[in-house]
């Protein structure tokens, strides 16, 4: 028994599953069409167009699954969008019949994710992820902005840690009348600045390479 997957309007990937299901049953459908008189059948060009369309949609399905995993993080978003842009903008010799579709999909990706490289949540996570670092930024200005912001955040956290480690002077003990005596004590030498943690040193080394 042959089962087919149908298109569901609320699920974009149902289009891909439907095409893949038909392509898997191509031989059986061709035999069925040859043994019977049908009002219409798929031509060779139509089968080829279905194959090309499925190939274009496969990266969307793979990346959708990747960013939907329980172990996925915000660092996966920016690289995923960059990969989609590269796949859709790459021109192939066998793109005849799907060039308009690829261009339309690329325009949709650009529109929906126009600000992904300037969103702190995504570019911070990407820079700090050892798998990606700065390899998936499409514009040098966005990369410079991201690195500068990251360095500023590290410096800010270092200053906050330095402030919390500063030692406050001890208050004088009150006398028998309840008054506090002012006792002279030698000035406390300034504390040396706290050393950067290994994580902070790693961050600075990554963004300044």
Keywords:
209 residues; mainly alpha; 56% helix; 0% strand
Description of the molecule:
This protein is an all-alpha fold and 209 residues long. The protein has a domain of 42 residues. Helices cover 56% and strands 0% of the residues. Helix 6 crosses helix 7 and helix 7 runs antiparallel to helix 8. It starts with 12 loop residues before the first helix and ends with a helix. The mean pLDDT is 82.
User: Tell me about the biggest sheet?
Assistant: none
Which structural class fits the helix and strand makeup?
mainly alpha
User: Helical segment tally?
Assistant: 8
* Proportion of beta-strand residues: under 5%
Mean pLDDT: 82
**SSE pattern:** HHHHHHHH
Question: CA-to-CA gap between the ends?
Answer: 60 Å
Helix content: 55-70%
Poorly predicted parts: none
What is the topology?
Elements: H1 13-24, H2 26-35, H3 44-67, H4 77-89, H5 99-112, H6 120-128, H7 140-165, H8 198-207
Helix pairs in contact: 1-3, 3-4, 4-5, 6-7, 7-8
Question: How do you describe this structure in short?
Answer:
This protein is mainly α. It has helices at residues 13-24, 26-35, 44-67, 77-89, 99-112, 120-128, 140-165, 198-207.
């Amino acid at each position: 028994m042959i089962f087919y997957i149908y298109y569901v309007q609320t699920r974009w990937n149902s289009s891909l599953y439907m095409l893949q299901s038909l392509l898997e049953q191509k031989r059986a459908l061709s035999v069925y069409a040859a043994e019977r008189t049908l009002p219409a059948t798929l031509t060779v060009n139509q089968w080829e167009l279905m194959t090309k369309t499925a190939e274009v949609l496969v990266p969307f399905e793979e990346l959708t699954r990747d960013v939907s995993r329980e172990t996925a993080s915000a660092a996966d978003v920016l690289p995923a969008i960059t990969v989609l842009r590269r796949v859709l903008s790459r021109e192939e010799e066998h793109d005849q019949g799907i060039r308009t579709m690829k261009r339309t999909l690329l325009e949709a990706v650009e529109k929906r994710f126009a600000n992904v490289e300037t969103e702190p949540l995504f570019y911070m996570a990407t820079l700090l992820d050892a798998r990606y670092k700065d390899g998936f930024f499409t514009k040098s200005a966005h990369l410079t902005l991201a690195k500068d912001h990251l360095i500023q955040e590290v410096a800010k956290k270092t200053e906050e840690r330095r402030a919390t480690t500063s030692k406050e002077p001890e208050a004088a003990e009150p006398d028998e009348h309840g008054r506090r005596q002012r006792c002279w004590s030698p000035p406390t030498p300034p504390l040396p600045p706290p050393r950067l943690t290994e994580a902070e040193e790693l961050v600075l080394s990554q963004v300044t390479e």
